[in-house]
Amino acid sequence: MLKLKKIGENLDKIEETEQLQRYFGSSIGENLILTNYLEFRWYLDGKLQLKTTLATVKKGQITPVDDAAKTEELILSFLNFKEKVINNYYDLASQMAASTKAIRYGITEALKFEDEQEELTKLKLLFQDLLLPDLDNNNFADMYAQTIAYGLFTARVGHAQNPGQGMFIRKTASIHISDKIPFLQGLFRTVIETDIISKIDWAIDKLVEFLAKVDMSSILENFGRETRQEDPVVHFYETFLGAYEASLRKSRGVYYTPEPVVSFIVQAVNDLLDKEFDLDDGLGSRKVTILDPATGTGTFLYEVIKQIRRNFEKYGVNRWNELLRDKKVLERLYGFELLMTPYTIAHLKLALLLENLGYRFQDKERLNIYLTNALEEGVKKSEVLFGKYISEEANKAAAVKTEIPIYVVLGNPPYSGHSENKNNWIESLVRDYYKIDGVDLKEKNTKWLQDDYVKFIRFGQWKIDKNSQGILAFVTNHGYLDNPTFRGMRQNLLQTFTKIYILDLHGNSKKKEVSPDGSADKNVFDIQQGVSIGIFIKEENNTDLATVYHSDLWGSRESKYELLQQLSLDTVEWEKIEPSSPFYLFIPQDTDLLEEYNQGWKITDIMPINSVGIVTARDYLTIQWTAEEVEKIINDFVSLSEENAREKYKLGKDTRDWKVSFAVTAHRNKKVLLKSTTNNIS
Hints:
Shape: globular
Strand order of the largest sheet: 9-8-7-10-13-15-14-16-17
Helix content: 40-55%
Structural class: alpha/beta
Largest sheet: 9 strands, mixed
Number of strands: 17
Radius of gyration: 28 Å
Distance between the termini: 49 Å
Number of helices: 26
């Protein structure tokens, strides 16, 4: 790309503009010249490679500089640049992320100038009405950019799997998208077949050109392989998300579940179905419907299919295809996903697995993974001619939420203390956790009951309760096991389920957890928050409080992985615990002196007036050790674009009372105040 500015315009200042920073972070900056006709700057992947000057301007006169040879070299380097052939998923994901950023930028800019009757805005409003009520312009641009990128990616995969069809080009790309993903196919055709595409033609053409050169056969070979802890499809997605927008991963609480954790949970559920419910085929049994409400890239459903395959080996491996149809396996597997990229990858990944195992999809047969927010109420939508595939997707997801009985709910729901899911439906369900022994909690700060993982547990509990029996199995934040704020939640779970197994994986660096022997204790995820596996079993017609079993797993990450692979639910050393009022703790405790302790006065009786004390926020930006550091950080903060400031200082989503753009503007307008503030600090 050649970016032309006015003669003599200051390129240093242009470099710092939000537009140029966006270019440098996307595929536009892959090979770019910035020039004011006198000075030329050449960038590769957003980094300056060469800078030359042809002339200078003084008193309105242009004076040549003897630098023509260097400028010629710069221009030839720009023209002769060749993209390397991509043959691994890491490079593919990184390059796709850059291209998707460019498309997103184009959509965002187009939306600024459209009215409600133009194509992009009409489509956004349709999505808002039928599928994702909280969708704003930025999230729509993000989702749509990912749709285009992964639609083209999926089309390129289909093209590679059916050789002999000529070059991969945009005009025929949609015919290569599998009808196993009808929503993606429909949305992608909307992009190709309407005027919407004209606004972002340049970015799409660049991505098509790039994908056409990718060695997709080599990449697909890796997609079919896996080792003990690595799933190339998932790492492809994680690499993409990290390069595309790392803050999106944090805001949505998106973290890849390690394979040993997944396999332990799936194996445990399978064994319980056999042992507790007399279902010989476990997860493969015809009456067992399975839902992963935050399916991501399909890791849990992937393992479920493999487990069912193992269960069916007793019938003979050659009958796999027949058994899948006879026992209606694919009809009983459901997944919900909110983000377009993992939604697409989950379809691709599971389809590849099934095909590698010998399954042959019939025409129009699809996987039951739906683009929806599990925590939104399931309401069927009226069909519309434009975007019919959107209402169909919404209605099928709504049916799973409200009509189809679910026997097993499992997965790794997102953890996000600042929940983005605040609709009335899920809020009303979670209100059941705000009571203890029939009385309101009377907590000053119930924020942590609003964490997304709590809402997903409540959703799963609700689905199993509606079925009157079944299993809920999640790996989640372990805060709910003993935090006093969660005591109502614990009692509610005890009242719903028959048996509860808690395997606390610890690894909480926030609490500085160490193993009982004093050695380091590490997390199974790349996060600071400790986690646990919770398996909740509900039998029909049970009215007693649940029996609770607890066990701890301490040590290094590697040792935890090894133990999870070796252990089964039967071989874990469980300790039976008896949660009791008022806290109903899901951890063991020494109760020998509890009766004597309870005879003392409660602190809340002694000091009835209290507050939460000091509560900080946005600590990376707002808290430093010295006045000089405060001034340095704030000066840097006001020099950044809103997007870069948000990501660099981990500021998260805007709130009603605090917005990044307002903070930047305020500080830019009040530099004197900044100096005064730092003087007061010192």
